[in-house]
Automatic annotation (TrEMBL), chain A:
Listed SUPFAM superfamilies: 4Fe-4S ferredoxins, Nqo1 FMN-binding domain-like, Nqo1 middle domain-like, Nqo1C-terminal domain-like, Thioredoxin-like
Similarity section: Belongs to the complex I 51 kDa subunit family.
InterPro entries reported in the protein's UniProt record: 4Fe4S_Fe-S-bd, Nuo51_FMN-bd, Nuo51_FMN-bd_sf, Nuop51_4Fe4S-bd, Nuop51_4Fe4S-bd_sf, Thioredoxin-like_sf
Protein name: 4Fe-4S ferredoxin-type domain-containing protein
GO MF annotations, alphabetized: 4 iron, 4 sulfur cluster binding; metal ion binding
SMART domains from the UniProt entry: NADH_4Fe-4S
Length: 621, 245
């Protein structure tokens, strides 16, 4: 084992970075980078790594190739994937049995294995280079891109891509005011949801006079279907840490906390490892790099309450109290953790800091739109071909994200809506596909940027059902302090549930809107104030669907069970018996090659027959 | 001194005061429910909403928790405030229709119907009892459980709390609950005094042993004594009647 050498001065750190960069350049071995974030591991990447190791050993390739276990590469649809570097061949959906072929063909014979390549859906051609895959082509992966290059458990690997160079710059060439000014100039806004300008937030915390100050990294990622923060902490923990050290230096904080969900074991493991490594190396602790700047970081694990993503609730939770928001002002920058000035930023915001310090505010502010600078990571999920994490410059249109990067809707179905911003966000309809994605434009159509969830819905999605889903989430996750939020979400859910069950009546919509507005107006924290968004935005853009449920007692998308009916189309039925077996109720009867009969009184509308039929002989009304 | 405007009126106050404090001082009425002078501010009932800021950027805040700030513009009776407040009363009424206090509020602010399904929970989770117990009685016998729609007030593990001295402070401040007697229901009731009728005092006590540090302040021993003597009197009377007969 290599003896740990503490880095004592800024110059020492600079030298270690340079030597690591050189070491990476002079690397002669091929590298197989295997994505093994939580999602990759779920798809079996650990097994792939094992069989790769075995294959390398069997074929005596230890001198020619090495395996690098990295965090998430972003392309979830293609997990587990391997990028062969330095030639940049992208292999998708690799199985353990493919390991031998990869080593023998690609490493020894320099051949590309065709069947493991990604097929471009638009052209039907195989693509070998990572950068030519449409999913990656339109992205601007200034933050997420490094995930594919480094082993998150190895600090030297982070140094070898120039990591901690920004810290060197910040500590040696910049004053604290200059750092804050740079962040202000860059136009970086909080990536956690509300989009408050980060530089100004830092300035408030810096200006408050106090002997003790804190910074907090908010990693309480709670939106259903959003996982960019997890991916960053898993795949590039040192970068978040570097951002935090720079921020603490600028604000004058001596202690930092990372508030992470306990449901993210791998992220917690990697960031813990990064912290202990940084402590060993002297990048955290007393007199960092010979300066008089002290800074320590601790991890606090949250118990998975959505509301703890709210600043004041998060502080309460760190202090060991119940995670309930309180009145702001006083803002955390004045009175935060333990009553001291506290600055809270989201994981992605912190990860942006090293980049801004290194490349400058001007470089950063060139990316994006007038009001929204830089890139944003979205988790593109739902009814979409290329599920995954995408990092795009602000101002890109929804159409580009969904159709160019996401590859459109599977099964040739029609796009219906996209939901951004998680439970607090709204649904944006087809007509607004050319909307630029930035803070202002999204707010204008009744949605929010949020932390970056993007759920795509196709024609078979019922928008009333979507509203019901988010309300159900919110009524459960509301802390319950304000009656407006606790009872408001519960009652909205009751009304929407009634509508989906065919019990909706005239006037429900107006009442629902009034209640939604009262909930928005009267609640104390961001959760309640945005809880009405799923309802208000679906009513605004999909009113006809609500009316079909209430007046005609029909669900146009064929989702709400109480309002639909399955029936057999006699002309199409071939009498193949395929639908009879899956029916759990024995509601379908029939003989071979004779038209089958569905008994409505027995049918529970599970849809099993619909899935089983190969001849489109079952219809939903 | 801080100067702010409430309903167009310029008012002055000290630092550390809330909007509600200032309004009360100047005699401007703002309805409250979860607010109690002797307890910490909570901001849960949302009745004391006021509109702050200037058009077009105004928002509603609870005046009991929002600090008075220099130059703040406050309006207590805008359409937006009244509509939100009425909806809050309707929501409260739908879970605690039996509460006299909430009924009075409804009548005062013109809430004439409840459009929600009634749930007779007789608790609006205003947290007055929890704060009363912790802050005034130094008890901490009850608290909130769960979150969201599952939130409720109870004792730890839903069992009789050893911290509870049966002082009744929680019942005293409650605007809605029917805890005066819920019958012998051990699972839901907070008080359950009838089920857990352990004598609050030891069988025998004197001034030194009385846990209230003062003889008979809780009244149990006195009550027991008088009941005892009453019973004796009663039996004596009945015996006399029997004799006379």
């Amino acid at each position: 084992m290599r003896k740990i050498k503490k880095i004592k001065t800024i110059k020492d750190l600079e030298q270690s970075i340079q030597s690591q960069i050189q070491a990476r350049k002079s690397e002669k071995k091929s590298v197989l980078t295997v994505s093994a974030g939580t999602c990759g591991q779920a798809r079996g990447s650990l097994k792939v790594i094992k069989s790769l190791e075995k294959a390398i050993k069997e074929q005596n390739l230890e001198d020619k190739v090495k395996i690098k276990v990295t965090g998430c590469h972003g392309f979830c649809e293609a997990e587990p994937n391997i990028i062969v570097q330095p030639v940049n061949i992208f292999y998708q959906k690799v199985q353990p049995k493919d390991a031998k072929d990869i080593t023998s063909e690609t490493i020894i014979n320099n051949k590309v294995i065709d069947q493991l390549l990604f097929t471009d859906l638009a052209t039907g051609k195989k693509v070998s280079n990572e950068n030519n895959i449409p999913f990656y082509k339109k992205q601007k992966r200034i933050i997420l891109g490094d995930n594919t290059l480094i082993d998150p458990t190895d600090m030297d690997d982070y140094l070898s891509i120039g990591g901690y160079r920004s810290l060197v710059k910040a500590l040696s060439d910049m004053t604290q005011e200059e750092i804050i000014e740079t962040v202000k100039q860059s136009g970086l806004r909080g990536r956690g949801g509300a989009g408050f300008p980060t530089g100004y937030k830092w300035e408030f915390a810096r200006k408050t006079k106090s002997d003790t100050k804190y910074i907090i990294c908010n990693a309480d990622e709670g939106d259903p279907g959003a996982y960019m923060d997890r991916s960053l902490l898993e795949g590039n923990p040192h970068r978040v840490l570097e951002g935090m050290i720079i921020g603490a230096f600028a604000i004058g904080a001596g202690e930092g906390y990372i508030y992470a969900r306990d449901e993210y074991p791998l992220a917690v493991e990697h960031i813990s490892l990064a912290i202990s490594k940084a402590e060993e190396m002297g990048l955290l602790g007393k007199n960092i790099l010979g300066t008089d700047f002290d800074f320590e970081v601790q991890i606090v694990k949250g118990a998975g309450a959505f509301v703890c993503g709210e600043e004041t609730a998060l502080i309460a939770s760190v202090e060991g109290r119940v995670g309930e928001p309180r009145q702001r002002p006083p803002f955390p920058a004045v009175k935060g953790l333990w009553g001291k000035p506290t600055n809270i930023n989201n994981v992605e915001t912190w990860a942006n800091i090293p980049l801004i310090i290194e490349k400058g505010a001007e470089w950063f502010s060139r990316i994006g739109t007038n009001g929204s600078k830089g890139t944003k990571i979205f988790s593109l999920v739902g009814k979409i071909n290329n599920t995954g994490l995408v990092e795009v410059p602000m101002g890109i249109t929804l159409r580009e994200i969904i159709f160019d990067i996401g590859g459109g809707i599977p099964g040739g179905k029609d796009f219906k809506a996209v939901q951004t911003g998680g439970p607090s966000g709204g649904c944006i309809p087809k007509e607004m596909l050319d909307l630029p994605v930035d803070y202002e434009s999204l707010a204008k159509v009744g949605s929010i940027m949020g932390s970056g969830g993007m759920i795509v819905m196709d024609e078979n999605t019922c928008m009333v059902d979507v509203a019901k889903f988010f309300l159900n989430f919110l009524r459960d996750e509301s802390c319950g302090k304000c009656i407006s939020c606790r009872e408001g979400t519960q009652r909205m859910w009751e009304i929407v549930t009634d509508i989906t069950e065919g019990k909706g009546k005239k006037g429900d919509l107006e009442f629902l809107e009034a209640l939604a507005k009262a909930t928005r107006d009267a609640s104390m924290c961001g959760l309640g104030q945005t809880a009405a968004n799923p309802v208000l935005s679906t009513i605004r853009h999909f009113k006809d669907e609500y009316e079909a449920h209430i007046k005609d007692k029909k669900c146009p998308a064929g989702v709400c069970k109480e309002l639909i009916q399955y029936s057999i189309i006699a002309e199409n039925c071939t009498g193949c018996l395929a639908c009879i077996k899956p029916c759990p109720q024995d509601a379908i009867t029939g003989e071979l090659k004779k038209v089958h009969v569905l008994d409505q009184s027995k049918c529970i509308k599970c849809g099993a027959c619909y899935e089983a039929c190969n001849f489109d002989a079952i219809k939903i009304e | 001194m801080i100067t702010l405007k409430i309903n167009g009126l310029e008012v002055k106050t000290e630092e550390g005061q809330t909007i509600l404090d200032v309004a009360k001082f100047y005699g401007l009425e703002i309805p409250t429910l979860c607010y109690n002078e002797g307890l910490s501010r909570y901001g849960g009932c949302r009745l004391c909403l006021v509109e702050i800021g200037e058009e077009p950027k105004t928002k509603l805040v609870s005046s009991c928790t929002y600090p008075a700030e220099e130059g703040l513009v406050v309006r207590t009776d805008t359409k937006r405030v009244i509509e939100a407040r009425k909806m809050m009363i309707e929501l409260m009424l739908s879970v605690a229709p039996g509460s006299k206090i909430i009924q009075d509020l409804a009548s005062k602010f013109g809430v004439k119907q409840v459009r929600f399904k009634i749930r007779n929970e007789e608790c609006i989770l205003c947290g007055l009892c929890v704060r009363m117990c912790a802050e005034q009685m130094d008890g901490r016998a009850i608290g909130f459980q769960n979150r969201g729609y599952k939130r409720k007030i109870s004792t730890p593990f839903d069992t009789r709390s050893e911290e509870c001295r049966l002082c009744g402070g929680c019942i005293y401040v409650c605007p809605a609950c029917q805890l005066r007697c819920q019958g012998p229901d051990a699972d839901t009731a907070v008080c359950n005094a009838c089920l857990t009728m352990d004598p609050t005092c030891l069988d025998f006590h004197d001034e030194l042993q009385c846990w209230m540090y003062d003889v008979g302040r809780c009244g149990t021993c006195i009550r027991e004594k008088t009941e005892e003597s009453n019973n004796k009197k009663r039996t004596q009377k009945s015996k006399q009647k029997e004799k006379n007969a």
